[in-house]
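We give its fold:
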Amino acid sequence: MEKRGPRPRKTWSQHREHCPGGYDADDAKIRSAKPRAKPYKLTGGYRLYLLVKPGGSKLWKWSYTYGDKQKTMHFGIYPMVRLARARAKRDEARAQLGEGRDPGVVKRLLIEENLRASELTFEFVAREWHMNTKSSGRRSMPTTFCEASRGTYSRR
């Protein structure tokens, strides 16, 4: 038997032809994706993929590496977040990663900031209503209740 050297590597186009289902998903493939017994992925390029679960839900996810750790970021559910929007979110996250910031942490901080802003808005409106009803002579909730509920509605 003759000794052979290592097998020649496949080119990217040969590898793409070999893999069933192709690599980059398009809108038609995503719409026609049916649930299977186990979850599977449809790739969208640059580590973006659509996870199709056995129950039929389709979730956009993006895997990335930050600080030698593998991380995953979620972009939303398929019918609400289309392919173009998922790719745009991925590009924004890649830009943040290029600037040296962890996109997952940036997203979490943005969500916390929005929650804090909405709580402050509610507290401001409630206090303004209380002051208006108090000054107009109408009967309003007791001041002690307002002060007690302050801890319930604001995070401090």
The first strand starts at residue 40 and ends at 45.
